[in-house]
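In the previous lecture we treated proteins in isolation. Real proteins rarely work alone, and many bind small molecules. This record shows how such a complex is specified: first the sequence, then the SMILES for zinc ion.
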Amino acid sequence: MSGSDLHDPIVDVDTLSTQCPHCGAQDDDSFEALDNETVVTLRCDACRMPFHRLVFECSHCTEENVITWPGRPTAEQVAAARCSVCDTRFGCDDDDGRLEDQLLE
Ligand SMILES: [Zn+2]
Ligand SMILES: [Zn+2]
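The predicted 3D structure, ligand included, written as tokens:
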């Protein structure tokens, strides 16, 4: 047996699917690492409407999350972004957990 089928060329960790919050169109979009943890303004290829996107890596489970808003998000909306896997809040760093542990002692 050749074993060549084990290598899947489609896998690309730098490509995430972004869903337009206006029309629901999905776009497989390569993004620069610079986009990480920054709200960027994009325009949907399908409906031509601008929207805002935040890409962040969960500080707890390292899941890459893509959050989109139809309008510019407030600081509160950005702070309310959560990991789709473990529900850890965006921007929640390990220091918070340690602080709570200390308070419990
Ligand atoms: Zn759209
Ligand atoms: Zn997570």
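Summary for your notes: Residues 14-104 form one domain. The helical segments are 75-79, 94-104.
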